[in-house]
Amino acid sequence: MKQFARALWTAAFAAFLPFGAAHAGSAEDVARLQQEWAQIKYQSPAASQEQQFERLRAQAEQMAAREPGSAELLVWYAIVESSYAGARGGLGALKYVEHARKSLEQALAIDPRVLDGSAYTSLGSLYYQVPRWPIGFGNDQKAQEFLKKGLAVNPDGIDPNFFYGDYLFRKGDYDGAERALRKALQAPARPGRKIADDGRRAEAAALLEQIAAKRR
What are the UniProt keywords, alphabetically (predicted)? Predict the structure, then answer.
């Protein structure tokens, strides 16, 4: 279970910010969450991430409560909460990923295309990384459904391709996984997201190395 929790949201999925689509206040809050999440995820020691994500989760909760109609903040609240769950580990983390799922569903009800399909990709990631019933709500069929919806909205994005590649890798489809991961590596850079982009590319490259090792 601890291994699952650490692996949960290896990405914890990074999202995309179309600044013109949100109110000024929520756009600034989303940008702040994006930057702090990336710094914790990719630049902080693993031993300190649980405490740092817990602090950021509390901040994200307050931001989402101030603007309950902001689909962008709901997505990032879910991302941070899931990342905290992954760093925390254990069965106690499941309540946080369950709440993250509800936040993503709320975001989709407000705006199905929020953050270039990030809510779809995030939901898909949860469904294939969370354990199945009776422990959790994991469901491969739903995972594939939401991951493909995320790709339909943002076919060239780094995150939808990375997570679809990761999903296919876990299912043993190494050819499909390789195609998706190489597409993730070729994705255009996101303004203001260098830390997240570099971290995601490193994760994609590591998965490609695992695929190559399995083929030897």
Answer: Signal
pLDDT band at 214 (very low <50, low <70, confident <90, very high): very high
Residue 25: the pLDDT is 61
Residues 185 and 162: their CA atoms lie apart, in Å, by 8
Domain count, the chain: 1
Which amino acid, 83?
S
Enter the tokens of residue 73.
């903040």
Note the helical H segments in 114-193.
Answer: 114-129, 140-153, 158-170, 174-185
- DSSP 8-state secondary structure symbol assigned to residue 62: H
Other beta carbons within 10 Å of 195: 17
Q: How far is CA 98 from CA 9, 54, 91, 179, 210, in A?
A: 14, 16, 12, 31, 30
Domain that includes residue 33, residue range? 2-215
The whole-angstrom separation of Cα 39 and Cα 2 is: 23
pTM for the whole structure: 0.88
Q: How far apart are CA 28 and CA 141, in angstroms?
A: 35
- Measured over all CA atoms, what is the biggest interatomic distance in the chain, rounded to whole angstroms? 53
pLDDT digits (tens, 9 = 90+) for 142-159: 999 999 999 999 999 999
121: its two tokens: 């990709």
- The alpha helices in the chain, defined as continuous H runs, are 2-7, 24-43, 46-66, 71-88, 94-110, 114-129, 140-153, 158-170, 174-185, 194-215
CA distance between the termini of the chain: 29
CATH number at residue 130: 1.25.40.10
